[in-house]
Amino acid sequence: MADAVRYVCAEDILCGVRTAKDLKALTELEQKHLPVITAPEKVKRNEVFEVTIEVGKYKAHPNEPGHFIEWIELYSGDTFLFRVNLSGSLSVPKVTIPVKLSHAHGPLKAWEKCNLHGLWEATREIEIEE
Ligand SMILES: [Fe+2]
């Protein structure tokens, strides 16, 4: 992924959207923060399917009052699908939501926000069959 890194200010972790620099060699920070999208590769138009987004799948992210995942969002391309707000120590940053798409807006895109380490993004291609 040549355009996988979208740092606005490399020295300020709260600035911009972070993604994996190299999916085959994730840093510890990336392992703890990259949202992982689980979804079918192909779905039928207007048919309900489930999308799971998990943060900390590669390496557990802290889940305590001072350091936690604040929210998770899912988009189809740039079209908003859902947002889940998390409470920190009383919730787990993993969510499964039913979705149905009438057409592809682009790849599924997940964003998650860590209160200390900012905004992180992952994408997953999905094909919509007629
Ligand atoms: Fe964090």
Structure write-up:
With 130 residues, the protein is mainly beta. The radius of gyration is 15 Å and the shape is globular. Strand 9 (108-114) and strand 10 (118-124) form a beta hairpin. The two termini are 28 Å apart. It has one helix at residues 28-33, and strands at residues 6-7, 16-18, 35-38, 42-44, 49-55, 69-76, 79-85, 94-99, 108-114, 118-124, 127-129. The protein has a six-stranded mixed beta sheet, with no helix packed on it. Fe (ii) ion binds at residues 33, 61, 67, 114, 116-117.
Core attributes:
Immunoglobulin-like, globular, mainly beta, binds fe (ii) ion, 130 residues
Summarize the structure.
By secondary structure, the chain is mainly β.
Topology:
Blueprint: E1 6-7, E2 16-18, H1 28-33, E3 35-38, E4 42-44, E5 49-55, E6 69-76, E7 79-85, E8 94-99, E9 108-114, E10 118-124, E11 127-129
Parallel strand pairs: 2-10, 4-11
Antiparallel strand pairs: 1-2, 3-5, 5-8, 6-7, 6-9, 9-10
Fe (ii) ion (FE2) binds at residues 33, 61, 67, 114, 116-117.
Q: How far apart lie the N and C ends?
A: 28 Å
What is the ordering of alpha helices and beta strands? EEHEEEEEEEEE
CATH superfamily: SOR catalytic domain
Small molecules (ligands, ions, cofactors) in the structure = fe (ii) ion
CATH A-level architecture = Sandwich
Structural class: mainly beta
